[in-house]
Amino acid sequence: MSRSHVLYHMVRADFLERVRRYSFLLTLGFSVYLGYAVYAGQITLRLDEYRGVNNSAWLGSVIGLVGSVWLSLVGFYIVKNAIQRDRETRVGQILATTPMSKAFYTLSKMLSNFAVLGTMVAVLALAALVIQVTHDARHIDLVALFAPLLVFGLAAVAITAALAVLFETLPVLRGGVGNVLYFFLWTSLIAMGASAVDANRAMPPAHSYADYTGIGSTMNQMQAQVRALDPHYSGGASFSLGGLERTSKTFLWLGLHWNSDILLSRALIVVVAIKLALLAALFFDRFDPARSFLRAGTKKKKLKAIAGEEPASSDHALAPASRSAVHLTPLAQATSRSRLQLRFFAMVTAELRLMLRGHAWWWYAVVAALFIACLTSPLEAARSGVILAAWLFPILVWSQMGTREARFATGSLIFSAPHAAGRQLFACYAAGVLMAALTGGGLGLHLIMARDLAGFIAWAAAALFIPAAALALGVTSTSRKPFEALYTAAWYVGPGHHIRNLDFMGTTAASSTPAEFAAAAVLLVLVAYGWRKTRLAHA
């Protein structure tokens, strides 16, 4: 069998394995939602007061940007588990015994990721067709409708598929750090492509090669058409998710001019995606435990334990006599000890210690520096700037909430105790609130000293809301990725831009809505509790 046939069967098998998962249905459901958001006007493209007439060219351009911009963000978190899944299912160890090269493996994973994201693009294409039929079934131009999505969307998700593989092969980026850093990489790439739009000038041909989503190429041509139509057009353009007022003017958009620079740049982007997948092979450990970053750290600890540098595991620590002698504790005494161990404050302390476990000295130094900066900076700067860093830094601590029991398979042990499900959950939430106070407490003290009651209420609502969101997402998904991805995006959109109703940190008095987020915190904790109780009842 040729290498191309082997590659095809590997990609096909991996794709079919993903298709059989419920998460794949949720993935397709997200694509359907994006199509609905365009139809309902929740995703809007406008040029000051102008928007295009709802013909195939305009709808195709909007859907094309939805596919290239939003799928390139969300798609990364959907497919960034291909190599990890092979580790967990032990399939990787089997593949490691074959003569398959590392480059062959990483390329197959990139193509498998691309197949999943390509399916989402196909669902968006069907959604575009449905929307066009509902608007004007008599004048449908399939080329104008599908071309932007296929050209821009497929090229963008190819880069996303390759970056997901590359991040999984790098020890530092395969976990939560990579999930956070990808968001900032994505925003940087979007900003690079949209720079010509912000400048309100004709885009140089070479700029197409830096515009990997096509947002610059599309909106720049739209700007030129509106500028020719209305000399008073100021050059404003936006592509956003909801919240904007309706436009008052329309223009007839005839579609993109597909010049050679746009088409060649898409081909180059696909080549770059393949190169990134091959680059990942240089860092791929081929499922070798000796080269695994995490297992290497565990191995060092075991060696230290054997050498007497740190305590060994409980099995090694037992003396021969204690192994052979078994002592049963009286029931009354055991009940008393259980009640002592299940004391709420003791559980909160234990949860907080678990959250903070494993951090180096410099991590605590950064937390202390952020606390002091919130306390000593000018109040407005601390409230609108420093607190953003203070409450982004512990994102990987909060993302553990509600997931540890599933990740380490300790649920049957923890939840076998009486009333453990509710007590452990609320203790975990209290520890998360304490984590918010430890990192951003300097601002809380600053607001108290300034006698800013409204500002302190907004700060307290945020300290309650953030861990509540982490707990609810962790319990319902049993994964750290949803909170890491959603929180980073919400942090950037809401507090980062001081947008009212989205600014859950209350960074300014105008954008602060503490009552909404305090109520949301209560609701999220109740959702987490109800979800866990339901799962345990059916376990």
Describe this entry's structure for a reader:
This protein is mostly helical and 539 residues long. The protein has two domains: 3-293, no CATH class; 340-537, no CATH class. Helix content is 70%, strand content 3%. It is built from 24 helices and four strands. The strands form two sheets. It has a two-stranded antiparallel sheet. Helix 8 packs parallel to helix 23 (481-493). The longest helix is centred in the N-terminal third of the chain and has 35 residues, at 102-136. It is globular. The two termini are 45 Å apart. 38% of the residues are buried. The model is unreliable at 293-335 (pLDDT under 50).
What's the arrangement of secondary structure elements?
Elements: H1 3-19, H2 22-40, E1 43-46, E2 50-52, H3 56-79, H4 82-88, H5 91-96, H6 102-136, H7 142-169, H8 176-199, H9 215-229, E3 238-241, E4 249-251, H10 260-283, H11 293-307, H12 314-317, H13 320-324, H14 331-341, H15 344-356, H16 361-376, H17 379-390, H18 395-398, H19 404-407, H20 411-414, H21 420-449, H22 453-477, H23 481-493, H24 514-537
Parallel strand pairs: 2-4
Antiparallel strand pairs: 1-3
Helix pairs in contact: 1-6, 2-3, 2-6, 3-6, 3-7, 3-8, 6-7, 6-10, 7-10, 8-9, 8-23, 15-21, 16-17, 16-21, 17-21, 21-22, 21-24, 22-24
